[in-house]
Design a protein that fits this description.
Oligomer: single chain
Number of strands: 12
Distance between the termini: 22 Å
Number of helices: 12
Structural class: alpha/beta
Radius of gyration: 17 Å
Strand order of the largest sheet: 1-12-9-8-5-4-3-2
Length: 297
Amino acid sequence: CTEKLERALAARPLVLDGAMGTELMAFGLPRGTPGELWNVDEPGWIRQVHRGYLDAGADLLVTNTFGGNRIALRARGVDPGRAAELSRAGAGLARAVAGDRALVLGDVGPSGVTPGQDVSEPKLSDAFEEQARALLEGGADFLLVESMYHPRELALAVGAARRAGAQRVFASVTLQPAGAGFGAFTGASLAELVGAALGAGADVVGANCGKDLSLDDWVRLTESLVTAAEGRPVLVEPSAGTPVAAPDGTLRWPVGHEAFAAVAPRLLAAGARLLGGCCGAGPAHVAALAAVVGALE
C-alpha cells in the first residue's frame, strides 16, 4: 500500500472524501449522538456514505472514527472501553467498501482536552495508541490525525500512530486567520503546529475545517502550508463554508460543488497534492474535485 500511495502521489494529485458527520445527520443520526456508535449499530449507513464518496471519485476513504479515542468517547457518554471495538469496526467498514479501488485512512481526531492539564500526557498518548492499533487491525492502510490545534497533542497523536505501526501518518490541523497569517484558536501558529507534526514523524501535513476561512483564504493557507511542510506532500480539506441554520433547524452550507471546483485549480497551483472536503462537503463536492484532477491527466 505504501508503494501504491507513493506511485499515485507522484503521478497526480489525490482526492480524499468529504464530511462524515453531516452525511450521517442527513441519514437520521440524532444531533448529539456519537456517530462512531453507528459503526456497530447501523453499519449499512456508514457503508453507504463510503460508497457515495468512492463512486464520486475519492482515492482515499476516511473512517468514521473521528471521536473514537477513549477520552473523547467518555466525554460524550460512551463507555471508553468500547474505543478499540468502535474504531476496529469503522476501519473494517471502510476497507470493505474501498476494496482495491481506494486506500483507507484511519481517522484519529482530538481528545477535546488539554494535554498535561486536563489529562496526563502518558494517558493521552496511550489513548491515541489504542485507537491507532485498532484502526490498523481493522484494515486501515494509513492513519490520519486531523483537526488538531494543540502542538503537543498533535505530536503525541502522531507519535502514537507511529508506535502502533502506521506506515504513513497524515497530520492535519484546524486554523483560522491570525494577523497576516494563520493560527489555531489556542494561539499556536501554523509553523508551530506543522513543526510539531514533522518532529513527531508525519509524512503528510495539511489543514482541514477551519474557522472564518474563505476559499481565497484557503489558497493563501495552502501556500503557507507548502512553505512549512519542508517538502512533504500537503493536504487541504476546506469546509463548505460557515453553516447557516434553516427555519426547520437543519444546517445549510453555502459553498456548493461549483465553487469547490472553481477553487481546486488554485489550490493545486498553490502546491496541494491531496484535496478533500470537510464539514458540509458531500459527494457532489468530491466529484467536482475529482473532475478537476481528472482533467489534469
